[in-house]
Write a structure and sequence with these properties.
The chain is an alpha/beta fold. It is built from nine helices and 19 strands. The protein is 31% helix and 31% strand.
Length: 367
């Protein structure tokens, strides 16, 4: 890019703050030119905090500033309206997950804007360093054809995106756009909840927490296992686990077992090069991840001292900027996000009803 890509933000919550703050760290690539919020007093606050003009509607932001793309970071029910308004203005959009709250909303949104290909969705999980390294190992064929993914880390559409994304890596096919059978159950058990997004809770006694378990039959021998407990993002008493199984081995977190040739099974680790430990004085930063002596992920933002979530979001932002100028591929198209949320909603329905749910083939499947 010869000049920074201009963008705007609709919304002002904690996630919108991520986008504004990270863009400020990348001045050669991105320039925030404005924001849109609902209330005048909020507009004044945003202008003071971000140093950009704030407007009271997405349409006014688009017409006054003419950004090359706009981030929609608003509550679920509002997202389709914001996306539609911006797309009608001819503006490219990076919208927070999910693109619409329910199945009907997904179908209506796709009918309105899907064919225009102006909308990407801000799904960042597979851009986190650890997951990106696992995906690269799958892409290189080291565990053969991917057949099963187990995720116990994040919830709903994020977990489904990980399952479908890893299963589709390295394959010349789209995974999970056909009928998907979902079986799910919920279980309640005591669990101490010492930490939330707001910090330490002070809790000292376990309280009931719900765990949702689901199996996904995505067809062609491919499956997913979904395992999520209330507040698992923040509760350090529950570890995160990811397993990717293939025809020649499997990845379990940072351990990989795979076929090495005649009568040879290899066990290796994904190793992170983390600067700033002990007598390393290069600053605290993720440098790269390696597997069997080869780099499988290199931090594209080294020097900014970002945590993994920030690396993923900043990577998504820069990929969206390249797409906005037709200089890069679509980072995460609306069709993928619609399918991920459709399956996530099916998990909830199956868990609520106690009976299997089979998703239909939707219009976005022919994207």
């Amino acid at each position: 890019m010869t000049t920074p890509v201009t963008f705007g933000i609709v919304g002002s919550g904690w996630r919108a703050e991520f986008f504004a703050r990270l863009a400020a760290l990348l001045p050669e690539q991105l320039t925030l030119v404005g924001a849109a919020v609902r209330r005048p007093e909020r507009a004044e606050e945003v202008t003071r905090r971000w140093g950009v003009p704030a407007y009271l509607s997405p349409a006014e932001l688009a017409s006054r500033q003419r950004p090359e793309f706009v981030v929609s970071s608003v509550p679920w029910p509002v997202n389709p309206e914001v996306i539609g308004t911006l797309a009608d203005s001819g503006v490219r959009v990076l919208a927070e997950t999910p693109p619409a709250p329910d199945e009907a909303g997904l179908r209506e949104l796709w009918a309105e804007v899907g064919e225009r290909r102006l909308v990407q969705i801000a799904e960042q999980y597979l851009l986190m360093p650890g997951h990106a390294a696992r995906r690269e190992i799958v892409r290189r064929g080291l565990i053969g054809r991917p057949t099963s993914v187990q995720v116990s880390s994040t919830h709903g559409y994020h977990a489904v995106a990980m399952i479908r994304g890893l299963l589709g890596t390295g394959l010349d096919m789209a995974v999970g756009f056909g009928p998907v059978r979902v079986d799910a159950r919920r279980f309640t058990a005591p669990l101490l909840d010492p930490l939330t997004r707001d910090g330490w809770t002070g809790a000292e006694e376990p309280q009931d927490a719900t765990t949702t378990l689901a199996t996904l039959d995505l067809g062609d021998g491919m499956s997913g296992l979904y395992d999520f407990t209330d507040n698992q993002w923040h509760n350090r008493l529950r570890q995160r686990r990811i397993v990717v199984r293939g025809s020649l081995g499997e990845i379990a977190d940072d351990t990989v077992v795979h076929w090495g040739g005649a009568r040879t099974v290899l066990h290796s680790e994904i190793v992170r090069s983390q600067l700033g430990h002990d007598l390393n004085l290069d600053g605290f930063d993720t440098e790269h991840l390696t597997f069997e002596g080869q780099v499988v992920y290199r931090n594209p933002l080294i020097g900014l001292r970002l945590m993994d979530e920030e690396i993923a979001i900043a990577t998504l932002l820069t990929a969206t900027a390249a797409w906005a100028r037709d200089e890069g591929p679509e980072p995460y198209p609306l069709a993928e996000a619609c399918q991920d949320h459709l399956i996530s909603l099916a998990i909830d329905r199956a868990a609520d009803s106690g009976t299997p749910v089979v998703t239909d083939i939707e219009p976005w499947a022919s994207r």
